[in-house]
Design brief:
elongated; 15 strands; mainly beta; Immunoglobulin-like; single chain; three-stranded antiparallel β-sheet; about 160 residues
Length: about 160
């Protein structure tokens, strides 16, 4: 499970109204002997500075703002990976929401540029000789209905041995 906590960054929507959004991530593995660790959070702040519209896009293969997670398990093991592609996150304090369409890429080493998009519902992959596999998390974030405040949501990635 990949948990997003969304306290403030500043930006403006199309009407010129200021609202704030941020994303940080933590990972929790439930059961099994595969360890999942968050290496870095998705950088919506930097990505939003580079884009003028209410849709922020982070390419998981090329953008340094992509989140990074590392799975660690049995060396050379075959694993099956799946994740929920879309999520709507609501504001804790009342009205306001964000809509995420995630894109995830992966590679057996810590090399984002070599990673491959995981665009199937389920994907079979292999841990490297050290028992590691890296995931790079990006996608589209729609900030159109975002209001200042805190947003909570979860990005869930399931990894299991085959």
């Amino acid at each position: 499970m990949f948990l997003f906590y969304l306290p403030p960054i500043t930006g403006q929507n199309q009407n010129g109204n200021e609202r704030s959004v941020n994303i940080s991530a933590s990972a929790t593995v439930i059961g099994g002997d595969i360890e999942l660790k968050t290496i870095s959070d998705m950088g919506i702040i930097d990505a939003q500075r580079l884009q003028q519209e209410n849709i922020v896009y982070i390419n998981p293969v090329f953008d340094p703002e992509a989140g990074i997670m590392r799975a660690r398990g049995a060396p050379g093991a075959l694993i099956r990976v799946s994740y929920l592609e879309e999520m709507e996150v609501t504001r804790r304090e009342g009205p306001g929401k964000l809509f995420f369409v995630y894109e995830v890429s992966g590679y057996a080493g810590d090399n984002q540029r070599e990673s491959e998009l995981l665009d199937q519902i389920e994907r079979e992959l292999r841990l490297n000789d050290e028992g590691e596999f890296f995931f790079f998390i990006g996608g589209r974030v729609d900030l159109t209905e975002a209001l200042p405040g805190n947003y909570d949501g979860e990005f869930t990635i399931e990894i299991e041995y085959i």
